[in-house]
């Protein structure tokens, strides 16, 4: 930094990222401001400048430098600062400049044990709510996924989903065979989901059954007509754990993306307009690496005539710019506990190769590489394709029916029986009848999978439900 740079800065007014101090005699107060800059978008402090921007400078001795160093060391966590001593021409005085860049993934910072924030040109003590929010964003032991939910019980988790994850892990050599014989609490503890008998948020995200307390476990899906959001063709929402949401996402793709056929040797292979593996990898990344701490957040899928956009809350690590994502890089998951379980259960194929898989799959079929974007709050991936270039086949692969996880659950519970709504709810361990009817039973009836014993009188006191031929066919699949 030059003296001309100092002059240019002093023309500006103090604000969110700029502070003037007459001397390091105001060191303590200025460190509070520096802490606030670190908790914001970064900033610069100039010593030897009056509030009105007049440059007066100050003498700098070894004692001055030691005082600054000692004060900076009281900021936690440790951060590398840029300290510059700029000589004032024609004098023996200096302007001392301390500059800090934005440190999004290390916040919150404290000075002498207290956190500060900057509002316009004022530095204040940070409210506890804001401090807790930044702690969750930092991750690690403070991350949202690791936080204990004292109201969450093992009975609230889907035991079949837990054992299914274990079986996949054993089948693919990522878990020892003895794991399947262990009790559920032992498995959860090994997955780092259970500590001292208490479950964390990651357990609900991965294996929760009824997620009333987790509205962010949501997937929004839309098929738009044309290339804008002006008109819907289809609009769906799915709620559930990661495994259920991934199933729902892939079913939606198979419903709305054309299938083409190609001959490979003696066999005909079916291909989506965008490769299945690329879409699946993008969805897995969205569920695995998204920010969950905001209750109103979700993952969204938007299908247009020329592209597919998959969006989630979150951003990339500060030291991993977008341009490096296309290269081989180490994986730094936002939610390491969730990522570890997905890896062990073979949902997450390997560390740090998800994006290269997407790129490779798109190139394999002659599509451009996916575009990856972030604005610091959201990450979205854009897959471009040309619908006119595919040969459409009317049928869907039986392995990926368009039924939602909720619908498939109703069908599996009813099976070959004839049951009342109360009996179905008891088997599914559901207590909210309105939720059950709206999310499970009514959609199954409307789509023709479930029939009524008394269809002429839907409110018949002896009403019971059974699978239709369509429901039985899906059950067999």
From TrEMBL:
<dbReference type="GO" id="GO:0004386">
    <property type="term" value="F:helicase activity"/>
</dbReference>
<dbReference type="Pfam" id="PF21247">
    <property type="entry name" value="Fic-like_C"/>
</dbReference>
<keyword id="KW-0347">Helicase</keyword>
<keyword id="KW-0067">ATP-binding</keyword>
<feature type="domain" description="Filamentation induced by cAMP protein Fic-like C-terminal">
    <location>
        <begin position="405"/>
        <end position="468"/>
    </location>
</feature>
<dbReference type="InterPro" id="IPR038461">
    <property type="entry name" value="Schlafen_AlbA_2_dom_sf"/>
</dbReference>
<dbReference type="InterPro" id="IPR038475">
    <property type="entry name" value="RecG_C_sf"/>
</dbReference>
<dbReference type="InterPro" id="IPR049514">
    <property type="entry name" value="Fic-like_C"/>
</dbReference>
<dbReference type="InterPro" id="IPR007421">
    <property type="entry name" value="Schlafen_AlbA_2_dom"/>
</dbReference>
<keyword id="KW-0547">Nucleotide-binding</keyword>
<dbReference type="Pfam" id="PF13749">
    <property type="entry name" value="HATPase_c_4"/>
</dbReference>
<protein>
    <submittedName>
        <fullName>ATP-dependent DNA helicase RecG</fullName>
    </submittedName>
</protein>
<keyword id="KW-0378">Hydrolase</keyword>
<feature type="domain" description="Schlafen AlbA-2">
    <location>
        <begin position="14"/>
        <end position="126"/>
    </location>
</feature>
<dbReference type="Pfam" id="PF04326">
    <property type="entry name" value="SLFN_AlbA_2"/>
</dbReference>
